[in-house]
Each structure stands twice: as C-alpha cells, then as structure tokens.
Amino acid sequence: MAACRWTGAGPNDSEGQPLGENGERLHAWMFRRDGQHGGGPEPADAQVVNGLFACVGAVLMGRRTFDLGLRNWGDVPFPAPCFVLTHRTRGDLAMGNGTFTFVTDGPVAALRRAEAAASDRDVAVTGGAVGRQCLAAGLVDELHIHLVPVLLGRGVRLFEDPDAGPIGWRSPEVTQSPQVTHLRYLRP
Amino acid sequence: MAACRWTGAGPNDSEGQPLGENGERLHAWMFRRDGQHGGGPEPADAQVVNGLFACVGAVLMGRRTFDLGLRNWGDVPFPAPCFVLTHRTRGDLAMGNGTFTFVTDGPVAALRRAEAAASDRDVAVTGGAVGRQCLAAGLVDELHIHLVPVLLGRGVRLFEDPDAGPIGWRSPEVTQSPQVTHLRYLRP
After folding, report:
1. Contact at 8 Å (CB) between B85 and B66?
2. Are A7 and A64 in contact (CB under 8 A)?
C-alpha cells in the first residue's frame, strides 16, 4: 500500500528555505513551540502525526526533496528506509534512524522496492513530482492532506496537472484542530 | 461583506458544458437525483445550500461565468440582483427572480455597487477571475469551499496565482456529508 503525503511550498524554495517563502506556515502546526501544549503540537495534531509515524514502513521521495530537506531533517524524515528517486546515482547514505538508498529505475520500480522494504506497513510518498507520478500511475491508495488556512499566492502546487484523468476518492476522514484541517482520502 | 464562493472547472468549458469535462462531478452533491433523499441533496448539504441562499443579497460575477452559465440557470443563479463585470456593456436583463446589470468600471467599483444592493446581506462573488481579483484586493471576508473528492487532472484552478502575498484565514467551520466537505473560512 502506498500512502501519499506531499507538500506544497512557497516560491523560491532552496536548501536554506526548503519550503520556499512563507512555506514554513504550512508546517507550523507540527512544530508549535508556544508553550500552550508543552511546546509541541496540539493534541489532535499530535495524534495525527503519531498515527502517520506508526504506519510508515518506508519512504519514497524525489532527489529535489532530498537535496532541499536533508540539512533540515539531519536524519531520515521518518525512522524507516528511504528511497530517493534520481537520475544521478550515488552510494547509500546511512543516518541515525535509517538509510537513504538512491534508485534510478523510475517511480514504479522505486515504489516496488519501497513496498518490499515496508513489508506490511505503508510507503509514504513525499515530494511533489514523485507523488504526482505515482498518482497518475494509479499507485496511490491513500491521500493525506494537511490543509492549513493560508493562501501563499505563489509557489509549488500540490496537484500540478497530474494528467491522470478524473480520479475519485471516498469522502475523507476529517480531523480538525485550531491550526490545520487533516483530510484522509481512501480509494473507493 | 463579500462572501466568495467560486468554482473550479474541468478542461474545455463551453456554453454546452459550462463546468468543463467531468466538471459536473464538482456539483453533483447539489443536484442528487437518486431518490435516496426525496430526489434532492443530502440533508447536511441541503442545510449548507439553504444557509447560502438565505444570506446572499446580491451576486457579483464575471462575463464569462454569465455567458457560460445563463442557459443552464434559466434565471439569475441566486434570487437577488446580479452584477456582471464586463468590458462590453449592454442593457439590463430582467429574469424571473432578479435582474442582471452589466458593469464596466472594474471589480472594486462593481463590488461596491453589489454591496449597496445587498444592504445588510452578503455579496456572493462567483466565477474564478473576479473572485481572485477581489481576494487580491483584500475585499473577501469569507471563503466557502465545497471540496469534492475527485481530482480532475486538468481544468480551471480555484486559486490561480492570486498574487496577493500570504493571506491567512481562521480555522474553517467544517460540514461533512457523504458527497462533499464544506469548508467555511473567515478572516481573522
């Protein structure tokens, strides 16, 4: 099973500003440090994040997400094997909680490798382009959207013409917190 | 007060297919005719629609929405005065439940005229381009999104680079039905 979790970003994303201008507002709910809830996220948000971490058995991401994200993460983004889809191969990169493996044989083969590594848990697909490729290929079973009430105006769109014709989902599970609306869509 | 309610569409919208290819799936929740609920929408959806109709005192739309929508509506889309923003002026068009008035002096002036006509009720801004212009000008107080679980792949985007810098909203009121997730955003 592949669960797709991907992220838009503001304009001008770079290694120093991996989510682009104002893009950190899209993730602030995950890292609240205002002391109201022990310095972490709201309880409802924490429950969503914990649920996500519990079900992820492997990660698939694009090279650009890896390049922009690594310094910020300082480790693998989930404590699981991470597969990075790339045109420029390189050796494995072992981190504290998992290893980055670089794969060059396209999104479908990369997803199959990640699924094998995840065993009975989910593959989290993260990063815009890879997520859209998997979506267009009909390989995504769940879509997790964390909808933050801000219009950035410009930047990286979540759904940039996936070119997959209409794809229908079931009505989502909704978890609402003061910061964010979590929508979990399953295939019919 | 301006409440913005606008609609994406599938590709190749035209008078015969005003919501574009597969775009009718975005509105099916409003017109269900499967007999399960007396031939109309689900009760939760009916309540949202009735609330919308009760608070709309005038409508502002673009010329393209008028041109593509008129045949389908057969009347004004809400029982209220409707202002159509256009570059090509023409005389008023009286329908059964209200009159279309064509205005050429730009979105801000058009919105002011609609607000005067609406008195203490809301102006519904409908149609992509006019909605985005009002949003970029900071004139939208509420955003009503009816989120249907289908990815059309191509078509008219709801937020096509409003170019207004980040705009923050309060956490939405969520009304969930089996067909659609209604999100009502207010300005902070």
Report:
1. no
2. no
Q: What is the mean pLDDT of residues A93-108?
A: 94
Distances (CA, A) of B6 to A186, B12, B26, B64, B143: 26, 18, 11, 13, 9
Which of B151, B163, B177 to mutate against chain A (most A CBs within 10 Å)?
Answer: B151
CB B107 within 8 A of CB B84: no
Picking from A168, A176, A177, the nearest residue to B150 by CB comes out as A168
Convert the pLDDT of each residue in A43-75 to its tens digit.
999 999 899 889 999 999 999 889 988 988 899
Point out the residues of chain B with pLDDT beneath 70.
Answer: 1-10, 32-39, 127, 161-164
If one counts every other C-beta atom within 10 angstroms of the C-beta of residue A91, the result is 8
* Per-residue pLDDT reduced to its tens digit, A130-157: 888 888 888 889 988 999 998 887 777 7
pTM of the model: 0.86
Tokens for B177, please give them. Answer: 């039905």
Closest to B166 (Cβ–Cβ): which among A153, A170, A178? A153
Q: Which domains does chain A have, with CATH numbers?
A: 2-7+20-186 (3.40.430.10)
